[in-house]
Specification:
seven-stranded mixed β-sheet; Rossmann fold; two-stranded antiparallel ribbon; 26% helix; single chain; alpha/beta; 6 helices
Length: 221
Amino acid sequence: MSEFSTARRKMVDGQVRPSDVTDIRIIEAMLEVPREAFVPEDRRALAYLDRDLDVSEAGRAKRFLIKPAVIAKMLQAAEIGESDNVLVVGCASGYVAAVAAKLARKVTATESDPALAAMAGEALQRLGFSNVTVRAAGAAEGDETAAPYDVIVLAGATEIIPDRLYRQLNDGGRLVGVFAMSRPQRAVLVTHSHADFGERALFDAAVPVLPGLERPPAFVF
């Protein structure tokens, strides 16, 4: 067994399973997807640590792969089905999109940094994922070309209500992400039923805010 395979098993057994993630499909997906393939080479030794991992290039806006346990718990709450059409917002280098692609029929992933979006697309193609499309787009925009979505996953936090993303949900669809409008930050599940949106707090979680979903700066006199 390779060093990374051992680290992957330890991540699942030491971080994911103890976080009450019991969905065997998610566990198997996280055992199969090589997280190190979505991390710059000089940081691959850090790929399986319990931390938000910076995958951005030097001099560019910081972008992160969020903690493995947090994304596993959010995916479990989203209850992604095999026939679902999924949008991953702020996919960074593509890891969350890869895990979601193991669960869903089709995944569209957006990333605000064009260079990182290209890196994500290359990594996913290299690993043989044929049901994922990566697009360079702002987090607040989503991707209306593949909407409506059964599930939308925010691979980071939002400080605003992402109304435009809500409108891209299918009837019965779910959006899951970390809402940072107040403290503590909480992972929230939003459900769309007819014209209404319901929210349910899931668990406390602090993750980096996605570019484009920041709170507008306060006016100072």
